[in-house]
Design goal:
163 residues; alpha+beta; HIT family, subunit A; 5 strands
Amino acid sequence: MAWPVFTGTIEKEARAASRYTKKHGSCIYEDALKTEIERGRVLTENDSFVAIAPFASRFAGESMVLPKRHITYLGDTNKKERGDLADILKLVLKTNKEMFGDIAYNFSFHDTKYSPKLHMHLEIYPRILNLAGVELGQNVFVNTLPPEDYAEGFRLKVISVKN
């Protein structure tokens, strides 16, 4: 589903990214990516994209794919980047299949033409567990697989998937 207006989570992210850039002079997503690399939450990468298990993941096996260069809109990617995005997405899904079996997913592209500070990214939510009372009633997410553990297990499995 795509929205014809700039709204919801993407609007909030764009405002926060703009405030962060104004205060720090850098991109919040690029700075966060440096932290994810330091903390060992990188799943895999290629020439154009990095897949991470984001800090404070809400769902077991949640991942995020970010372009290495600052792009705000999927339509601004070039042919090589689109191929690299397809490749990294395929690798994430194949590796997750090795880890979790056949599961359903929700995907959310966060991009916009209207905010130069937002760093386009793809959020991938595996549907491993059902949301329960805490998540639905209190909007508090209980993740049974810490992102560090997911990243470590992913990196071990990705070797067999690539071979």
